[in-house]
Amino acid sequence: MNIRETMYIASIKNKLTRSKTVRNTIQEDFSLEEVKSIMLNKSPTCLFCLPYSEKKPCVHITKLIMPSHHGVYMYYDGWADKTPKYYNWKEFYNELLKMGLENIRF
What we know:
The chain is 31% helix and 18% strand. The protein has helices spanning 3-13, 32-42, 89-99, and strands at residues 46-49, 59-61, 71-76, 85-88, 104-105.
């Protein structure tokens, strides 16, 4: 081994850095099918949106959600007219996305 090779190997070993293992947690939103499955299994009557209120429901679901249904009857607590409106699953999912799925509890 010549001097140049020796200097190169020494420069590789003498680093001013170190390696760290970093563990990241990534939060992913549920898909439409996952939200639908949860709604069918749990059949909640109201949904809380944390920026709105932790004690007062933001969304009221007025009819029991059945597997044969193609959507949800609901109204927002802030609506003056509390007549439930029908949302198919895609529309319902989009409404939940607007509120932020990470903010929703039931």
